[in-house]
Every structure is written in structure tokens, then in C-alpha cells.
Amino acid sequence: MAHTFVKAERASLRSLGVDERWLQERIAEDPSILGLGDLAVLRREKKQITGGRIDFLLSDPEEDIRYEVEVMLGRLDESHIIRSIEYWDVERTKNPDAEHRAVIVAEDITNRFFNVIALLNRAIPLIAIQMAAVKFDDRFVMTFTKVLDVVELRASEDETQGEAKDRPYWDARAGKSSLASVDDLLSLLPQGSARRVAYNQGHIAVGTSSVNFLWAYPRKKEAHCFFNLRLNGDERSQWIDRLSDAGIFAGTRGDVMKMRVNQKEVKEHAQLLGELLAVCERLSRAV
């Protein structure tokens, strides 16, 4: 059955009799309308220590990403750009274990301000979303279009290691359960394998005599730990599927595979994870 064509016209939200409070209610009901994924609302109109209130603090629990969202009707202005960056900076300072992204949502993002935030995007993970209301008869729909996304300028894991540290540094910095998940995972490496463990300021790296093949990022409060593993191409896709089938979070991150596990998962899937580490170690020797 063919769909019926309906002539519509674009309209501003204010001309339709709605305000920013109404828009915030719609986002709170279903944050996925922003097009950022299946996000959870952590806080709404959260008061900031620097003054002001952030419209939304959203979270992607699977990726451990937090979104500091500033919403406005009409045309984007300087004050909203400044506030978005300020709120992002405050939240990332308070919760450094999570990844943070500033989000600006506005009806009209002019070329002038788009160029400004595009330049800022090179240094700050900034997302710009342009919303539009389309009216037909006595009804209207909303669309949200991501006009600027986070720039993925990831250096290699080894380039971002930071200052060399030791095990006591991580004992003091990370939670016991998260760090124990690293130890439990490394215990699954093939017996007799020659490996080296390097404790760095930013992560714990594990490698052979050739190159590193695993990078661990222990958390302070969470029981799990994030890992990046040297895998790419079809082999990476196959392992993402195998881990996902087992209920383990895994995905693509640049030119590596990301994974998140806790002690319970390491114990329950020891054979599978041991096989994964053996593959990564073997491939690292061929580099």
C-alpha cells in the first residue's frame, strides 16, 4: 500500500506554542530521539559548582560514556557554547574514569558558530545536533540531525601511555575488584609465554618481546575493567561476535578491539578468554 503524500512546512518551536521545558520533557521521556543511542538520564538540570544548571547528564552504560547536554530553542549563541564546554569540563573533572562528551542541541546553528565549534571539536569532544519541527495540519514532528560529531584522532595505545609507574601506583589508584579482574585475565595467558607487564600512568600494557597486545584500564569505583586488544579485520569481527554471544561486552575502537569484563565473567568464560589472549599474543609476535 502506497503512503499518502502530505505537504508540510518547517516551523519554529515557539511558533507552535511550545517552550524549552516542553522540549526537555520529550527528551527526558525518550533520550534516544537525540540520535546518540539508547542513553539513560542520570540527572536533569543538575546544579554546577561553577553556577548554572546543566540541562541533561546522559549516560551510555555499555560504553561508559557520559554526555553533558545543553538544549536551546532558536539560534545557537556564544553563551550556550561556553556553558556546554564549561559543564563538560566540570563533569569530567569530577568523574575522570568515564569518557565525557559535550553536546549542543539547537534549532539554528549558523555557519559562523558551526565553524567555531568545528575548530573546538579538534580539542574537545563536542557534538552539535540541529533540531527541526515540521508542521502538517494541526500536528508536527521533530527531527534531530547530528551536524558535528566527535573527531576520532586517537593516537596508538603506546603513544598515550604517559609516565611509567609501578604496581603500588595502581594498587592505590584503582579499585581492588577492577584490578583483580586484570590479574585474573592475565592468569589465562598460555603457560610459559614470555610476556612483560608495563605499569604506566594511563594504563597497564601487556606485550611480548615484539609489541604490546593488550592494554588494561582499571576503574576506581566499578568492579569491571576495560581492555583494548590488538585485533583487527575479520578476526576482530569474529571475536566480537563470539564474545557478544557469551554475554561479554566487546566492540571496535579505532584499530583495536575493546572489551569489558569483571572477575565473575573471567571465571565463567576462562576457556574462551584464554583462547582470545593466545590469539592476540601469537599475532603480536608476527608484527
Give the SSE map.
Blueprint lengths: L8 E3 L8 H10 L10 E8 L5 E8 L4 E11 L2 H17 L4 E10 L2 H10 L5 E11 L2 E10 L18 H7 L2 H11 L9 E4 L4 E4 L4 E7 L6 E5 L3 H13 L3 E5 L2 E6 L1 H6 L1 H16 L2
Parallel strand pairs: 4-5, 5-6
Antiparallel strand pairs: 1-6, 2-3, 3-4, 6-7, 8-9, 9-10, 10-11, 11-13, 12-13
Explain the overall architecture.
The protein is of the alpha+beta class and 287 residues long. It has two domains: 9-148, Trna Endonuclease, Chain: A, domain 1 (3-Layer(aba) Sandwich), CATH 3.40.1350; 157-285, Aspartate Aminotransferase, domain 1 (Alpha-Beta Complex), CATH 3.90.1150. 31% of the residues lie in helices and 32% in strands. The chain has eight helices and 13 strands. The chain has helices at 20-29, 78-94, 111-120, 167-173, 176-186, 233-245, 263-268, 270-285; strands spanning 9-11, 40-47, 53-60, 65-75, 99-108, 126-136, 139-148, 196-199, 204-207, 212-218, 225-229, 249-253, 256-261. Strands 1, 2, 3, 4, 5, 6 and 7 form a seven-stranded mixed beta sheet that branches. Strands 8-9-10-11-13-12 form a six-stranded antiparallel beta sheet. Strand 9 (204-207) and strand 10 form a beta hairpin. The radius of gyration is 23 Å and the shape is elongated. The mean pLDDT is 85.
